[in-house]
Amino acid sequence: MSDTTEVMDMRPGDSGAAAFDVERVRADFPILNETVHGRPLVFLDSAASAQKPRQVIDTVRHVYEHEYANVHRGAYHLSERATALYEGARDKVRDFLNARDRKEIIFTSNVTEAINLVAKSWGRAFLEEGDEIIISEMEHHSNIVPWQMLRDEKGLTLKIAPVSDDGVFLLDDFERLLTERTKLVAITHVSNVLGTITPAEEIVRLAHDAGAKVLFDGAQAVVHMPVDVQALDCDFYGFTGHKLYGPSGIGVLYGKAELLDAMPPFLGGGDMIRSVTFEKTTYAPLPAKFEAGTPPIVQAIGLGAAIDYVSELGLANIAAHERDLLTYATQRLASVEGLRLIGTAPDKASVASFTMESAHPHDISTVIDRAGVAIRAGHHCAEPLMARLGLVATARASFGIYNRREDADVLVEALETVREIFG
Ligand code: 7TS
Question: Do you find a cis peptide bond into 53, omega within 30 degrees of 0?
């Protein structure tokens, strides 16, 4: 974060990230022309699901109108074209994550399914009673529940790495949890509630030194910063398309080839087999082994278009733009009397959770909706984190590529109305 003097000098019209033309970006998102209760939409809930640029919408429409058929099946022109587009999207994801090989990219329906795939396939095959898995206090339910289910099925131990009151991942405490029985560390790369960017490189180094594999839930990370799975050296990495300005219904699991090769299939059915008789089935090689049934064809192609879109903007430019927004919004929010920011780690993505003395987060959200401002209120599918922080809910404003400083101003103005109503 910039120093205070710089922050105090900021004005709404300033461009903090020169390489980034936010107005040009905004022009690509048709939904930003909507009005809500007669007011221009101020969308601050991209952490739940991001809006889609024209380039993604047009791609999806074009495929349905001109290039749609089932993939990997037909020896006819249209099916071959759809297959080329679908497999082309896999190449884009490979590039985006800098995976070594395209067969390390498995399409799923979302990150939840990606994590479940690892739990149900790798976990069932390779973990034994008494083995340990470490997650953290700030996980989304989708990186908690699959491991609890596996724990109960196999007699494992689930250990919880703590975070500090301000939302910092406590690396020393994490290190102390590692033992020779630790087989997996499954941690979020960016917290959806606190915005904390976890120290991924150090987590991998410590976990690998202890002989454990590492999975990152990258749902909130890939949207805010460049991710290189080879540089990270993580074993699994999952993300979800709809937060990355792509369609819903598509997610990605990256896994190191040697691990995915050794893992049994997750779901059985068409497309994942080499041959089937009633006595015995042999399985297709990667990545098909993990893609049973007709996949989310157009969603994957749409994700490819979203990756093209953010790559053209540049993930480093996006990160700089959002850092500027977070700094500005943090300073503006701090001016609201009775408002408490939840999650103030120094290394943080553009997510601002807060509570207000006078109003419940649901009331905050309902009141500011009247001003056209969309935020999320609730436990954010992170109930254990809420319990750890002694809260039942927070209000959360999350900033994406199309947000500008004015959005933070409208938010703060609307929060002043909340204060007037609730005292
Ligand atoms: N992991 C993290 C860190 C998330 O933020 C989310 C969604 C998920 C996993 C699940 O993603 P899905 O696409 O599989 O559903 N988070 C949120 C949120 O913060 N508000 O709504 C959804």
Answer: no
How many other β-carbons are positioned within 10 Å of the β-carbon of residue 337?
Answer: 10
Residues 246 and 194 in one domain: yes
Q: Is 381 a catalytic residue?
A: yes
Dihedral sign of CA atoms 376, 377, 382, 386 in order: positive
- Asked whether residue 258 carries a pLDDT value surpassing 80, the answer given is yes
Average pLDDT on 327-343 reads 97
- Tell me the CA–centroid distance for residue 48 and ligand 1, in Å: 6
Last residue of a domain, one of 260, 278, 311: 311
Span 23-45, pLDDT tens digits: 999 999 999 999 999 999 999 99
* Domain-embedded: residue 326: yes
pLDDT, tens digit, for every residue of 271-325? Answer: 999 999 999 999 999 999 999 999 999 999 999 999 999 999 999 999 999 999 9
How far apart CA 150 and CA 186 sit, in angstroms, is 13
Domain assignment of residue 43, yes or no: no
Contact yes or no for 202/124 (Cβ under 8 A) = no
Residue 13 lies in a domain: no
Nearest CA among 194, 199, 190, 163 for reference residue 344: 194
CA dist., res. 340 & res. 416, Å (int): 14
Using CA atoms, how far apart are residues 134 and 182, in angstroms rounded to an integer? 7
Instruction: Give the pLDDT confidence score for residue 423 in this predicted structure.
Output: 76
* Given 171, 284, 336, 381, the catalytic residue: 381
pTM, two decimal places: 0.96
Q: What is the pLDDT of residue 5?
A: 35
Does the C-beta of 353 come closer than 6 Å to ligand 1? no
Q: What's the longest Cα–Cα distance across the chain?
A: 73
Question: 228 CA to middle of ligand 1, Å?
Answer: 21
Q: What is the pLDDT of residues 407-419, one digit of tens each?
A: 999 999 999 999 9
CA of residue 140 to ligand 1 center, whole Å:
7
